[in-house]
Amino acid sequence: MKSLLRRAAAGCAVLLAMLAGGAPAVAAGPEPPVPVLRWIDCGDGFQCADARVPLDYDDPRGPTITIALIRKPAADPAQRVGSLFQLPGGPAQSGVRVLRGSPPQLLALLSRFDVIGFDQRGTGASRPAVDCRATPPSFFTRPDAVDADAYAAAARAYGLSCLRHNREILPHMSTANVARDVDLLRQAVGDRKLTAIGASYGTAIGATYASMFPGRVRAMVLASAVDVRTDRDHPVDGGEEQSAAFEDELDRFFTRCAAAGTRCGFGGTDPEDAFDDLLARLDRQPLPTGDPSHPRITGDDVREAALAAMYSPRRWRDFAAALTAITAGQPATMLDLLAGRDDFGSDDQRFAVLAADQRFARGPVAGYVHDSVHAYRMFPHFWWVNGLVNLNLALWPVEDDDAFRGRFHHPDQAAPILVISNTHDPATPYAGARQLVADLGNARLLTYQADGHASLTSGNPCLVIPALTYLTDGTTLPPVVATCRDDTDPFAP
Question: Mean pLDDT of successive 10-residue segments in the chain (493 residues)?
């Protein structure tokens, strides 16, 4: 842990910077050594490397950790613009796996860059990787019937197991330290300024980097943007906004399903009632599957599948088919959906990052139970997104003293940041993207009138071309009020 004196000095530096109206200055002192990257072929045209970065940036020449990287070199070195860093989502999603699994047509569009992905510190193939060797208490616990003391005790025990097995890395898992790692990686590949694209949690990395390292951004695109200030300073409010957005998207699924009729095939004229009836039945009596790896399907399994389906309208047909099948007592399609869920990273690693960043009150457990009861009443399908799960974060046993607590701001003299957001994004609501643009100041919003979370992966040229143009030339932005639209039918054959 840092000494009280060191924390006080850091706090004074932040306060002075804020009073001066600028972003908090990067701490002065010895500079950490720039990593030496030894790229080796790792198949399919990709190259891989490991980077050694400081465990603790207050001890820049002390113990190090390893960041796993992968890159797809520019197709034509003569036309190469530079490196393009893909900032990983999650938190704790493997940037290495995402880049390796990227569609060839996407990589072809980015062929003038060395496209680089990485696993953020403490996650994926980076080492050490957080492993708590314990299971957090269930997200789905009903708050109106919970033994609050027992739940809190389980959350504390989980956090203490995380600390016991990850004592060195756990106090250094903040997004601010990921941003510091990115700045070293930028230097390691020889780029004077950072060119980056981030989606979802990757936008939190990007906004933090731009605020901590003013003037070091060449071009940055933040898609499916997070309201980083609310999520950091008022995480319960942020979680409530997200829960409401998931409920809204599920309502839109029901409406589109009913309008599609037999092309959707679930629930007839009232898919919402059919869905709620199905949940109630599975809550009372789960459906046996005959699969030893997943012996029964519960209502909470279906709720989790619904959450995953809301991330993209491309998944709605398969989700509707799974609901139809399980209503008829046939679990196979739902099992396939559950097995194919997105890899958002491990709960252990995600909790480690969120607990470092988010300012949950350390108040009485009863306050969290009250908030959870409110969520249970307001958000009948997705209360658990912002329910008792927050106790795992509020009772986390360690803090990262180097987390970013300053103002999110991107200076006017820097290259603007392009922010892209869907109007019906369930995971990172559109209002949050507008707030991020306002907080950053020097940023431009491109609105996508569409459902789902990952805007750029839609492949819509109205989004992709402006983003690619800006990343390539570093200057050309879409108009101040720019809107794209998705008119596709999610239930089209």
Answer: 38 33 50 97 97 98 98 95 96 96 91 97 98 95 91 96 98 98 98 97 98 97 97 96 98 98 96 98 97 96 96 96 97 90 82 97 86 94 93 96 97 95 97 98 97 86 94 93 93 90
Burial readout 40-66 (b: 16 or more C-beta within 10 A, e: otherwise): eeeeeebbbbbbbbbbbbeebeeebbb
Q: What are the E-state strand segments in 157-280?
A: 194-199, 217-223
DSSP assigned state of 441: B
DSSP string for residues in 264-318: T-SSTT-HHHHHHHHHHHHHHSPEE-S-TTS-EE-HHHHHHHHHHHTT-GGGHHH
> Whole-angstrom Cα distance, residue 303 to residue 276?
10
The dihedral over CA atoms of 5, 11, 13, 18, expressed in degrees to the nearest 10, equals: -170
Structural contact between residues 210 and 220, judged by C-beta atoms closer than 8 angstroms: yes
Tokens encoding 47: 């190259």
In this structure, are residues 417 and 217 in contact, taking their beta carbons and an 8 Å threshold?
yes
Residues forming a β-bridge with 64: 54
Paired strand residues for 219: 195
Axis-axis angle for helices 175-188, 347-357 (nearest 10):
100
In angstroms, the CA 489 to CA 316 distance is 10
- Residue 409, CA atoms < 13 Å, CB-side half-sphere: 13
201-212 helix and 175-188 helix, angle to the nearest 10 degrees: 70
